[in-house]
Amino acid sequence: MKKSVYLLLAGALFFTACKKTEEEPPKSLYVRLGGNAAIQAVIDQFITNVASDTRINIFFADAAADPARLKKLRDNLVNQVGQATGGPEKYTGLDMKTAHKGMNIQEADFNALVEDLSKALDKFSVPMTEKSELLTALATMKADIVEPSTSLYNQLGGNAAISAVIDQFITNVAGDSRINAFFADAAADPARLMKLRNNLINQVGQATGGPEKYTGLDMKTAHRGMGITEADFNALVEDLVKSLDKFKVLPKPKNQLLGALAAMKGDIVEGSTPLYARLGGNAGISAVIDDFIGKVAADTRINSFFAAAAADPARLMKLRNNLINQVGQASGGSEKYTGLDMKTAHKGMKITDAHFNALVEDLTMSLVKFNVQSKAKIELLTALGSMRGDIVGQ
């Protein structure tokens, strides 16, 4: 009897052992998620979710704007998830701490990212167990992704980095024919250009939480009468963006800085103002012309052309009024010029290019004396330049 019991027990143990041997090993998370194809689908949806998530999409703005960079990001994510879940993929990107260094990602940003991934998993009906395992794996990276809160000033790189960006910005503006006329006077005066540079550095430093102190004029006063339009402002923003991109400023601080600039738009943009108004109307034009006549009278290079008028008060007054009316009408004012056309008025005077250039110099000095803004000054001098063919060589 005992022998029969032993045989039964042995048989039971044998069959139990066979059963355990025949059971399949636990499936990896990779397999349970559906392998590479399923992971790709989830990652694609995750990227779409992030792109429309205004809480965090700024972190991915540069990648989103570059198809090659976006594809690299996507492939890295697929490979990272594949490798982490037991698949054959190999992640070859940067470690998480290095990849996110300086991005100033906060806990709220990380949580938003987790939400976007969770939504992607839910769209493809990933079971709760697998979803929880994957999100837990992401949670273990949190310490390497989230950074302590830091000021925009530090995110930008402090004074040295801001100075480098501003220097490049000034270079960009100087080469931008859409707006460099506004800065022509400063560009021609090293001391004034240095003051502008330092003001910009201090303004950005102070606005972003640095120790710098901006002591210049408020934006409305500084730009009053310049006639800056929305197109001019947009060109300025473009030049700043190019500077930030050159120094690889990360999307979030770049966006914050551009947001601060956008907040000043209402104090900078005046809309399209006629040249006449920017010159100061009739009173401003009259003052410039009176000073110009005085300079020409003292300029030995060309005063002989005006000697007859200078000796006759009535004729000099007529010349003065003609000049005021001519500038007024040409710049959009209500004045009416009734004098001779330029070709007829200068016929036989044998005016050379050198004489014409001397005249332009005298007018420029008068405009500078009355602080006529760069763009308005250039517009007026350009109008005079268009008359050169009718004045020189007659």
From TrEMBL:
SUPFAM superfamilies named in the record: Globin-like
InterPro entries named in the record: Globin-like_sf, Globin/Proto, Hemoglobin_trunc
Classification via PROSITE patterns: PROKAR_LIPOPROTEIN (PS51257)
**Could you confirm whether the keyword Translocase appears in this record?**
no
Provide this UniProt record's keywords sorted from A to Z. Heme, Iron, Metal-binding, Transport
For the keyword Transport, the answer is yes
Q: What is this protein called?
A: Globin
Q: Which organism is it from?
A: Emticicia oligotrophica (strain DSM 17448 / CIP 109782 / MTCC 6937 / GPTSA100-15)
Taxon lineage: Bacteria, Pseudomonadati, Bacteroidota, Cytophagia, Cytophagales
